[in-house]
Design goal:
alpha/beta; Rossmann fold; 6-stranded mixed β-sheet; 6 helices; 29% helix; 21% strand; transferase; Methyltransferase; methyltransferase activity; SAM-dependent_MTases_sf
């Protein structure tokens, strides 16, 4: 579907998971600046609001000031020092997020050229589940999937069998 310009497996699975739980009539607040997946959501009929590049660890005003029905965060929680504060400030009752999972055979990602493109957290699934529970969310659905790479070697082989991404759909406990 998005073979030429996007990570097709990840985006295709994420879009299907989103469509399973979220109606196009619901406005989405997508954590992070406009990105390839927020554009895919818009191309598929969703109304998407993004943040504007503010430091989300220190500034959650956008979460409180915007009007939205669904909160999404796709591969952004691992870049935050304090995802707990973000989840506490979400003002809607539905969320859908995905994270890269910590891999036992690979260290946390850190760009050598971009000081902001680093993973502060690489979660295990139970850690994200606990974070959501502690901030008042109940997980309704979850999905894990692998992310094979087109390389030869022991670690690329492990990527065929080891889940790399974890997605959850959760609702606020009232």
């Amino acid at each position: 579907m998005y073979e030429k310009t996007y990570p097709s497996k990840r985006f295709t699975l994420t879009l299907a998971f989103l469509q399973k739980h979220i109606q196009t009539s619901e406005t989405i607040f997508d954590l992070g600046v406009p990105n390839p997946f927020s554009k895919i959501m818009e191309e598929n009929g969703y109304t998407v609001i993004n943040t504007t590049g503010e430091d989300l660890d220190n500034d959650q005003k956008a979460l409180q000031n915007e009007s939205y029905d669904v909160f999404t965060g796709f591969e952004i929680f691992e870049h935050l020092l304090n995802p707990y504060t973000i989840l506490e400030n979400v003002k809607c009752n539905k969320l859908l997020i995905s994270i890269p999972l910590r891999l036992w055979f690979s260290s946390a990602y850190r760009s050598k050229t971009d000081k902001w493109d680093r993973h502060y957290h690489e979660f295990e699934d139970w850690q994200l589940d606990w974070l959501l529970e502690k901030t008042g969310w109940k997980i309704i659905d979850r999905q894990k999937f692998t992310h094979p790479v087109k390389k030869v070697g022991f670690r690329p082989l492990l990527r065929f069998f080891t889940p790399r991404y974890y997605m959850v759909y959760a609702e606020k406990i009232k």
